[in-house]
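Sequence in, structure out. First:
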Amino acid sequence: MPQPPVFLAGRAELGHDLIVLSGAEGRHAAAVRRMRPGERADVSDGAGLVAECVVAGHSGQGLELAVLARRAVPRPDPSITVVQAIPKGERGELAVEEMTEVGVDRIVPWAAARSVAIWRAERGARSLARWRATAREAAKQSRRAWIPEVTEPMSATDAAAVITSAACAIVLEPGAPQSLGYLSLPESGDLVVIVGPEGGITDEESAAFRTAGAIPASLGPTVQRTSTAGPVAAAVLLSRSARW
């Protein structure tokens, strides 16, 4: 049986017995999904709370959903953080979309030394907004109760601090002596993966990450694009955890 679609609303709205989807969510439900009375739909706040609903009807305010039940989905553990070097063009949004669908919990845009794209001022704000909107829509499509956090852009120094606080951190480096699929991993905590830019991580960045505690690892004998490496690495880690 097909799974019901997921829509987003504020946590306060999920506490009502009748949820009214308005604005963009309501238009999508009514005009794009063409939801009809009696059809099932789930509404999430994107932070673990899900209301299981049935369409009650339409009103001038939007689509009305009657709540059948509510459930709280625990925060995923182990959690997966990907420190993603900022790619050029639309590859960043592609990476965010795929990482969200796979199950990444936090995405850190990283202004690597060799990143071609540079986020500054208004351009940076627009790019970050697109990443966050992409994570939101991909979370709905993949029926996630938790929308991945997309942080503010970080420098290599900031990324090193993320590594220090992780339960386990891996920096992807082609030719590294260890393969990601064979590393010993903790069962709980934050697993961090650092993905470099197309031009590769500089020696200075690599040294800083290793000093902070990151383990160099490869994704096999081939070299992947920066927009591909994050989703693949996350899938490898999740396949070895209780989450999958």
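Second:
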Amino acid sequence: MSAINALLPCVSALLAEAGDDLAATSDTPRLDAELLLAFVLQVPRSYLFAHPEERPGKEAFAIFRDLVSRRKAGEPVAYITGLREFWSLDLVVNRHTLIPRPDTETLVATALDLITGCCEPHIADLGTGSGAIALALARERPDADIVATDASEEAIALARFNCGRLGLGNVDFICGDWFAAVPGGKFDLVVSNPPYVAVDDPHLLNADIRYEPINALAAGRDGLDSIRHIVATAPSYLRPGGWLVIEHGDRQGESVRTLLAAAGFEQVATVKDFASRDRVGCGRAARNGG
């Protein structure tokens, strides 16, 4: 160890200092610090716990401090590192797409349950972003034929990159607005995590969220504009007995159930996320075609 390195903080001290630094701006300051240091050192987080006495070199120390400063300013960890785990998949992310969130795993789990008995299902993922939902379904159902759409060419390029990086071959990516990207398509399952935040919602001003693309977050005065469109249009694109599964805000469960029922869906239900909040609305197309 060089004399300079000997004067630098060890891993445990770095993490403690960074955690204190981030406490005022992050809900998970210690975790953020661990993720950033593991990224700088190119090691798993477990390495930090096993080697708390190690002293990173001068260059690594400087990079880490810079990344902590960026996080302190509000930039999400996922955008800093360019990576986010979702459904045990390591996804590349950037500012052209939302950062996949654990809440959305509820949508994936619900969708998988609903198509358990369906062989070789034809699935559409509307507004795929980084491809998180489509790729999770593709991993779990290699027999599925999946098409993923997004109005953003940059998002489609990223989702396609993630698909190739993960070695999944059963997803096609098409640039287009919702169902307009798949005219004439008929699906056993349609899934979507559309924008569902009201345009004047103060949460859009939160430090983390202001880095994400606003058009992937906000949808009208009540946040339901995109959901209204998808629900109203979906019956024409679902096979008899097919399912629509859509993520929504935790206070929108009743509104989404009303929209689904009005569009003629059957077996309408709301599924709660891991924190017991309303998160996913689902309904089944009439079996006689509807």
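Remark: The mean pLDDT is 92.
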